[in-house]
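If your schedule permits, I should be very grateful for your opinion on a structural question. I would ask you to consider whether the tokens describe a fold that such a sequence might reasonably adopt. Thank you for your consideration; the sequence and its tokens are set out here.
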Amino acid sequence: MFDKEIEAIAKCTELVKELDEDAKFRVIKYLIERFGIGNPPSHVQNNGNAKNAQLLNRNPDHFEDIADAKQEEDNDYPSLKDLVVKNYPKTEPEWVLCYAFFASKFGTDTFKREDIIEKYKENNRSSPSTAANLGNNINSCIKKDWIKSQNNNFIVKPDGITYAKEILKGNSISKEVKNVRKKKEKTASE
């Protein structure tokens, strides 16, 4: 069921993102009215997630407030340059997940392989090695259930969003992989 929700969100986002604000509001309002959405299901209301319940119970006239709250939350994340300085992602798949998280507007939109390559370049971490291994690292993210391929796009799955947020707080659970080859080369040349 969760994959269907993610697919619906990705499709709706893709179709609505290019509309002007008034059109977005009309489409969302129509869908709310069409499906009789007024109160969230009881299991959502009672699951202890007060923030989500509060957002779901808001009047549609307050969509701007929701967008403002989301923007404030997004500003709490470190920049890509800060991630390098702080050394938060410990492995290349974690770097790919973080790049995907940023490229997908914090898990709310789809992204492409090219977006990941662009994030590598923005972060001055692009190299022949990262380019050659990108497919393997994306596949690793898929195997870990962090991202999902969808046609020519990808989406960040809920587990990926959760773990990306943890990485961005400095809470990576991976062991840092040191580049052993460089150490061996330095030792041999000394």
